[in-house]
Amino acid sequence: MAFGKIPRFSPSFSLAEAAIAARYLARRGEDTPVVRKFEAEFADYIGVKHAVMVPSARYGFFLILKGWGLGEGDEVIMPALTYFAIPALAKTAGVKPVFADIGLHTHVLDPAAFEAAITPRTKAVVPTHLFGTPCDMDAIRKIAKKHKIKVIEDCAQSTGARYKGSQMGSFGDASYYTFGLTKNITTLSGAMITTDDDALAANLRGKMAAAQPGGLKKSAQEAVTGTAMMVATHPFVYPWTLHPLIRLGNLLGKDPIHERFGEAERLYPELPEHYAKSAPRAVQAAVGRKQLERIETLNGARSANGRFLDDSLGNLSDLGVPTYPEGAEPIYMSFVVHHSNRAKLAKELRKRGVDTTIGYMSNCADSALFPEEASSCPNADRAFEELLHIPVHPNLTSSDREHLAEAVRQACMACRP
To answer: If one looks up domain 15-210 in CATH, what number appears?
Structure first.
């Protein structure tokens, strides 16, 4: 146990990936063959015909919309609780984002809310498998088929999650994943699109072939950051280094980790130029291939930790714990709880050595960024105000888990009037 001090996350990036990154950063040679190998292996893992590596999930989403010819007058339905960049890029593509409510404790798109949001202009839906929890894909696909709507799965937080035995990303007409440093699989930035649509895949490959190779500086910086975070969150290092810095930041009204990995919310009047200048590099694909070898082990550890928290915290009357659609096999990318006073709960947990975060999701249906698209989504609104992320990363030990569960129980008691 990390001396009773538990970080909010611990990167999947390891010494093995650090060594691979160093080797590929120093090599000279073609990027494409390595990228193609990773794409083929990823497509095989998900169970689809095509996988195309792209610079980012948000750009991938944009390319999917444009690849299908969506634009002015078209609508895309997405959950209200989502990352701001997805509806922002929909608007950049000329498409109107339409927000539908989520299940209060599943945190994923409510099929009934999705169907109620459909209009004659609806062309696609984005079921977002938020926090690693699969959506009810049977219900969503049935509704989409009835109304002839394309399904774009948002798998940014769910690589390796399954629904009734099949991989997330194998149900939609297209899907996108992201491989940032804090995800359960990383390529030192970068993303992937999967699809069985031959024409869309060809269009995406053409876009990537025309793009300039991304600079290696960012990958090098991410490799350094990943290595530093791996060391800083080690059980024998974290209590004496990063944890005190986080506590100090909190006392000053700041969250240094949140600020390091977050970004200011904004719209994109035009597509940022660097998106077309960031074709994937061999170093990213090589790291991704190694990560793919370990993903089932990493996800298995996450799932074991998440199930332990499900069992340990489910009987706390003042704490809302996640629920999961029937048939969902979550990977617990995050373990999020509801509390009416999450700020105090977070403070009490920090006293007990447990670091937490409110995460980066927004209720976009009530966001100043999207006034014309505002709608009533009460579950998303409540989740946005109440959610707190509890550590569930794969590096937790059994002692960590016991300490974590007891710390939550004590913190909840301390929050009671």
So the answer is: 3.40.640.10
Tens digits of residue pLDDT in 124-148: 999 999 999 999 999 999 999 999 9
For residues 182 and 205, give the distance between their C-alpha atoms in angstroms, rounded to a whole number. Answer: 27
Q: CA angle, 53 as apex, 48 and 58 as ends, to 5°?
A: 100
Give the closest residue to 285 by CA, choosing from 24, 22, 91: 24
Q: Provide CB contacts within 8 A for 130, sequence distance 6+.
A: 79, 81, 82, 102, 107, 108, 154, 157, 361
Q: Where in the chain is the domain with CATH 3.40.640.10?
A: 15-210
pLDDT tens, 163-208? 999 999 999 999 999 999 999 999 998 999 999 999 999 999 999 9
Asked whether the predicted pLDDT for residue 2 surpasses 60, the reply is: no
| 412 closest CA partner among 328, 336, 320 | 320
Phi, psi dihedral angles at 37 (to 5 degrees):
-60, -45
What is the number of residues in the chain? 417
Specify the CATH class of 223-265+289-415 in words: alpha beta
Residues 6+ apart with CB under 8 A from 242: 7, 232, 233
Contact criterion met (CB below 8 Å) for 12 and 230:
no
CATH 3.90.1150.10 location in the chain? 223-265+289-415
HSE at residue 153, side-chain half, CA atoms within 13 A, is 32
